[in-house]
Amino acid sequence: MKINTNAFYLSIIAGIMIFLPSMLMILFHQSSFTLGIVASSIVIICAYCLVSRKRATLERKTYSLLLSIVFLSLFLLLHFIIVYYFPASGIFPPDVPKFIISFCFIMICTVAAFITKIVIDDTLEHEVHIALRIILYILIFNALISISKIDFFNSGLAKPTFLFQEPSHFALVCAPLLMYFSFTNIKSPLRLSLLLLFGLWGGYIQNFTMILAVLLAYLITTKSLLPSFFIIILMSIPVYIFIESDFFSYYRDRLDLAGDSQNLSSLVLLQGWENSFLTLRKSLLGVGFQQYGTSTLYGDISEKIYSMLHIYINTFDAGSTAPKIIGEFGIFGIVLVLTYLWGWWKIFKLVRRNRFTGSKKFLLFSSVYLSSFLEFFVRGAGYFTPSMFFFIVSVMYFISNNKFKKRVCHEVNY
């Protein structure tokens, strides 16, 4: 039997990039995904060079993508040079070695993302779908195992999540797959069963990110958007206001975004935005790539967290990705975030219009892009995460297929 090397390699890419970084965090007590993501990217690049027999060619549709990569590289370099040689008053000097190492890392990850995009382009749609189903089965198994709350790897964490360091990391990986399989099972009861399974998991574990991932997948893929939105709001109001219990107090505290909140998750999210805009007031250009937490200013919320824990937490990842971008790139960061939101709205409208007829690849990349909203505004862990890696792949897809409106084709039934 002939084995499709692209489908086989795609399964390897998905498995390595989704599970290896988190496992390395757990086993080696790392505080971020960075080393795991870079190691996974190197494995992907090396494996592609060894496995792929396709002759490297430069297709016309990849010109814009390669130009975008070159422009991004030059932007990161020039921006850092400017903020280094023309520092704003009151801003801590940037960490040059950290920038150099991070720049090399992001280039490695970009090459791996480019390869991933090529592999998906060259893989048949039903083979992509099969690879995603395998990953989904593993994630369901992970969810069921983690319900036991057994710390299999002696991580010492409050909420051990088996192959993932914490529930939020697990939720960010699940989010695009929940949305994708909601699209591909739009008329099947499996859609609601899948969302219910992960929704109940999020409720039992008490993870707000997973609850939002399920709600986002449901709302974006539902047939009637507005009625579904109002039904969720009407169901949530009495639970939020009238039901008093320890179980629901977690969600009330999590939704408290006031500066006097005692909930650490809410404070971390607010801390990211406060430190970002404090820095923006001092430096309109920001502090440079990967300098958040090193050169950015600390506000009252950071000091409140320190008074509670006697340590500063989440000072390098900003709690979510959008404030990190703004803090590091200033007004350019605001433009980048607005561009992201504009792209999100365009893809949202397009995928809603074609959710019954879009190709599986289009639905996959749309799901990855739309679900990244959680990482940008709810719970982020920096640029080097599994979900951000696949977000970069999705951006590459839409850049290289800039006429993707015309490429949305009739979905093949398998």
From TrEMBL:
Keywords: Membrane, Transmembrane, Transmembrane helix. The keyword Transmembrane applies. The chain crosses the membrane at residues 7-27, 33-51, 63-87, 99-118, 130-147, 167-183, 195-219, 225-243, 325-345, 376-399. The keyword Transmembrane helix applies. This is Lipid A core - O-antigen ligase and related enzymes. It comes from Buttiauxella agrestis.
